[in-house]
Amino acid sequence: xxxxxxxxxxxxxxxxxxxxxxxxxxxxxxxxxxxxxxxxxxxxxxxxxxxxxxxxxxxxxxxxxxxxxxxxxxxxxxxxxxxxxxxxxxxxxxxxxxxxxxxxxxxxxxxxxxxxxxxxxxxxxxxxxxxxxxxxxxxxxxxxxxxxxxxxxxxxxxxxxxxxxxxxxxxxxxxxxxxxxxxxxxxxxxxxxxxxxxxxxxxxxxxxxxxxxxxxxxxxxxxxxxxxxxxxxxxxxxxxxxxxxxxxxxxxxxxxxxxxxxxxxxxxxxxxxxxxxxxxxxxxxxxxxxxxxxxxxxxxxxxxxxxxxxxxxxxxxxxxxxxxxxxxxxxxxxxxxx
Length: 338
What we know:
Layout: H1 12-15, H2 21-30, H3 39-48, H4 54-59, H5 81-90, H6 98-110, H7 136-148, H8 155-169, E1 181-183, E2 187-188, E3 194-195, H9 197-208, H10 217-230, H11 266-278, H12 285-293, E4 301-302, E5 321-322, H13 323-337
Antiparallel strand pairs: 1-2, 2-3, 4-5
Helix pairs in contact: 2-3, 2-13, 5-6, 5-7, 7-8, 7-9, 8-10, 9-10, 9-11, 11-13
């Protein structure tokens, strides 16, 4: 059966609605295989930059390139600089846009730490975070955005890629900090110094964005280690290592949503593994069943983690049928079933 035959209904026309041009552009490319220069794609992407949610995000940007307050940009959470860049990436913002480029340059200047990686800091002045502030989730999210927006060759991005590879595998000397990434194999202070699957997904999502022919041996080893870690549990169960006495996986794993911050869900776990060539692995069958079970009768998925009231502008209503989550699910199913 093809991916569309897996659905309870056909949401394609709904996803191609011209009133939501960012979704339309992405659906044309991901589901209908339209190229970047396709006239319909070009028109939709241009219009997406002029309407919400992208328009309101760009309107809130300071002339120097930051949001909320100057500095590393982790605070205010979900409206600060790093979050806006991450969300713009997920919305498919135009890499050539001047404000997007200004934001990239600002993050490269004030969020990167000495020695590689991007650090978590909410200070309100232009001071880079300490090396102990680097976490897998933020580093992966920002790497993905910066690679998408054309900065793969930038020395700071290269240093962050190298940091990711070295900290994942432990193959080369690296300093681990109790207050940040606390050891190899995705160990993290935020997860009680145990391996963090959310961080692994974010890092692998970034490394998957590097063309295979441009991946260094260290990156290739890091991807292999990360894939092994994600396959160490059934993604449908998501009982990855849990800190602080927790014995039940976070409910956030099972609330499919958009946009995506440091939290990951079952769908993103599948997306990352699929992007690395594992879409057809039978170990993912239970997770595919879980995703398929969450569609409604017209073949749509609801947004169960919408960040309403937390972001610069609400992107979608909480708990209602979601174009973005439906697009994510359909893209994944297309990778699995063709």
